[in-house]
Every structure is written in structure tokens, then in C-alpha cells.
Amino acid sequence: MDFGMKNRLSKIFNPKTGKTVMLAVDHGYFQGPTTGLRDMKGITPLIPNADCLFVTRGILRNCIDPKIDTPVCLRVSGGPSILGDLSNEDITTSMEEAVRLNASGVGMSIFVGAKNEDRTISNLGRLINEAERYGIPVLAITAVGKEMARDSRYLGLACRMAAEIGAHFVKTYFCEDFHKVAEGCPVPIVIAGGKKIPELDALLMTEGAIKAGASGVDMGRNIFQSDNPVGMIKAVRAIVHKGVSAKEAFDIYEKTKKPQSTGSERDIDEQMEKV
Q1: Which residues are identified as catalytic?
Q2: Is the pTM of this model over 0.85?
């Protein structure tokens, strides 16, 4: 790798730990105004706690403060909505645009085993060819359709294919025997949080993935849909970068919760707002 590629990867992956906590807020590109992302102001307190922000160019331009220190990985694929065939994605953002937006990385989905598998894999190859010209690392996201099993055999296949095509790091799902997926992939793997699950379960998943060889997480809904998003991302960071247990991380999440107001306090707050 040349200097530019190494430098950008060092912004995404903490040089001290070799791991990353990415905050995924790109869901709107196919889901629309997702719960927790209807008003993007809600993610502002989360950004300083992330090693990298995974976002689309439209949200980056319109909703993110350009003075942030957190590096950006740009979602550059899209096309169909949740109402259509998601595997029918294409590349939607040029590398020149990624450079203009000062992206430290770009990411796109591949759909191994789906209807448009070959096209998404070919698109990944073309994206990597372009990204290499600019020294920008590429994240390949192993999208999983409803008809596909999230097991180590399938995810291992998808991750290895992404690495063989030239992806610099891969995002996939945690599964039983995840160590087999990690062992078979020669580039760093970050795990997706997936759908919202109880906070302790999400922390246990994070702990299990890190112990099994993951290099971090790219988590979204299990952070911004939590009842304590800031506490949750701090808890995830503690597991990824400090190696604490899920139970210890859950204590961090619990201790950073804001105390509930009493009825009389809420009445006072409402009165103050009226004033």
C-alpha cells in the first residue's frame, strides 16, 4: 500500500488497537426515514464516540458538521428501495466525489447468491480499480437476503470473495463459528449490528465477534435506536478497544442513562417551556 491508502486506513482503524467502531447511518438510502434517523440531529452526540462515520453523500452534505474530526466512509452504492429487489444495486457515487467530500474510505454492498450476484461483484471490482487510483480503501458489505442462511459457510464464502476481488476490509454478520469466517478472510472484518436487539444481546454479540477475530463493528440501529445511544456506543467502544466483557460494558451503558424525571419535575419542565 502507498502512503495515502495506509493513512486513510489508520484513520478508520485505531492505530493503537488495530480495531474500529464505525457508526452506520446510511440506512435511509433504501429504507427512507428510518426510526432513529428521521431527524439526523440525533446522531450529532454520537459522532465524537465513533472511529468512523458510514454515511451517504446526501446526508454528509446536508446534515453533518464539516468541522467534525471523525473520518468518513462513504456509501457509494444504491438504486432499489426496500420495496424492490435490493440486489439490483449499482455504483451511485464517483471517486472524484469521494475525494471532494474528503472520504477516508468508500463502501458498497455485494449480494452473493442473489439474482444480481455477478453484477454486484463486478461493480466491486470496478470500484476497487477506481479507488486504488486515488489511494482510497474500499469496504465490501456482504448483504444477506431473506432466503440466505447467516451461517459461517455462507458468510465465509461472501467475505472471501470480497477479499479476493480486492476489498480492503469487509463488513458481514456475526454467526455461530464466526472464527471460521475470520480465519478464511485475509482482510479485516467488521460486523454489522443488524436489526435492533436488546442492548445486552448486542454487547454480547460484539464481545463474541471481537474474541473470534473481528476487527471491530459497523453498528447502526443497535446504537441510534437504543434508549441511551451515547451510553451504548461508549459501551461498544469499551469492548472493542479495551477488551472489557459484555457485562462490564452493559454497566457503562446503564450508568450513563439520564435519570427519569418525576411527575412534578416534568410539570415544571412543561411550564418552563411555555414561559
Answers
A1: 171
A2: yes
